[in-house]
């Protein structure tokens, strides 16, 4: 392996580690609000309840890959739900 290939592997590994360490935690107040919203949303829309449940799990510190396995959604979808929540576009 050449020096350039070796450097590329190191950069790729560093990037992968940074992505894996991405934090999706929320303050306890936000989690409490989401749990309340989840309780009421179950009666209205299963889709909304799923979305809120996904955000709660990420907000508790779970990795997107773990949540993806539990909720049975694509990992990108899990991240998108959280990202939209954090910018106020989750409804």
Features:
91 residues; mainly alpha; 5 helices; 73% helix
Descriptive notes:
With about 90 residues, the protein is mostly helical. The protein has a domain at about 25-85. The protein is about 75% helix and about 0% strand. Helix 3 (about 45-60) runs antiparallel to helix 4. The longest helix has 18 residues, at about 5-20. The radius of gyration is 17 Å and the shape is globular. The termini are far apart.
- Largest sheet, strands/sense/barrel: none
What is the N-to-C order of secondary-structure elements (H for helix, E for strand)?
HHHHH
The oligomeric status of these chains comes to single chain
As a percent range, the share of strand residues is under 5%
Please report the number of helical segments.
5
- Rg result: 17 Å
Class by SSE composition? mainly alpha
Q: What is the CA-CA span between the terminal residues?
A: 50 Å
- The pLDDT mean sits at 80
Roughly how much helix do the residues carry, as a percent range? Answer: over 70%
The backbone outline, from C-alpha atoms, is globular
Beta strand count: 0
Low-confidence stretches: 8-21
């Amino acid at each position: 392996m050449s020096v350039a290939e070796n450097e590329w592997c190191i950069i790729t590994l560093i990037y992968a580690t940074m992505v894996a360490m991405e934090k999706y935690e929320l303050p306890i107040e936000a989690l409490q609000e989401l749990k309340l919203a989840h309780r009421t949303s179950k009666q209205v829309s299963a889709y909304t309840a799923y979305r809120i449940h996904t955000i709660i799990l990420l907000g508790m510190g779970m990795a997107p890959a773990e949540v993806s396995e539990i909720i049975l959604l694509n990992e990108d979808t899990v991240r998108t739900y959280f990202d939209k929540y954090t910018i106020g576009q989750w409804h």
